Amino acid sequence: MATEKIKRSYRKAKYILYKETLVDFREKFWSFVGSFIGIGTLAYLQSQTLPDADVLFLIGSFGASSVLIYGIIQSPLAQPRNLIGGHVISAIVGVTVVKLVPDIMWLAAALSVSISIILMQLTKTLHPPGGATALIAVTGSSHIKSLGYWYAISPVLSGVLILLIVALVVNNTTSKRSYPSNNQFHKKYHNFRKRIVQKKLKL
User: Distance between CA 147 and CA 142 in Å, rounded?
Assistant: First the structure.
């Protein structure tokens, strides 16, 4: 039973990756536009608000998230629940581990990533870049560590929300792309979006 479930998940993941990597220049164009606007917005905010500090808004895990939410938008790992939950949970775990094990880097790094994976699995918010978010809390500069739990709010949550807003706009600009994927978790969003479009058409 478990083996069959793993095989089905593998086949589904393989199909999604195959579909997303087909040479469709329109898809690649929108992937570029989304990632450019998302990361560009964070970089602009960074340059305007914290020019002399760490590149705080541009944590490395956001680049990995951009690959998912702009390039593989139908992946279960790219959905809003996973994007937000995965990053925020992992950030909290990373900060907590640093507070509990501040002086043993190898142990803090291993614990932060491992615990993040388990909690993301338990909460159904698995998002691979979340592991990097937890690791950054442990290995980041003294400026990042001094943020404490504020790290989970800014830059993590604030940055993730910016990336998500861009994804919702760009990934739904063309009728050939739909984000979030239309499953039980995201039907409400698409129903709301349809109502807005219908109201605009009536005006």
Answer: 9
> Which pLDDT tens digits describe the chain residue by residue (203 residues)?
667 766 676 666 666 655 555 556 787 888 999 999 999 998 888 777 654 555 567 788 999 999 999 999 999 999 999 999 999 999 999 999 999 999 999 999 999 999 999 999 999 999 999 999 999 999 988 888 889 999 999 899 999 999 999 999 999 998 888 899 865 445 665 566 667 666 666 66
* HSE-up of residue 85 (Cα within 13 Å, Cβ side): 17
For 41, residues 6+ apart whose C-beta sits below 8 A from its C-beta are 162, 166
**Apex 76 CA angle, 186 and 151, nearest 5:** 90
Cβ 192 vs Cβ 199: under 8 Å:
no
Cis-peptide into 180, omega within 30 deg: yes
The contacts of residue 203 (CB under 8 Å, 6+ apart) are none
Residue indicated by tokens 């604030």: 158
Question: Interior CA angle at 28 toward 193 and 81, to 5°?
Answer: 45
Angle at 127 (CA atoms; ends 124, 132), nearest 5 degrees: 135
The token pair that represents 10 in the structure block: 């593998």
The three-class DSSP label of residue 85 is helix
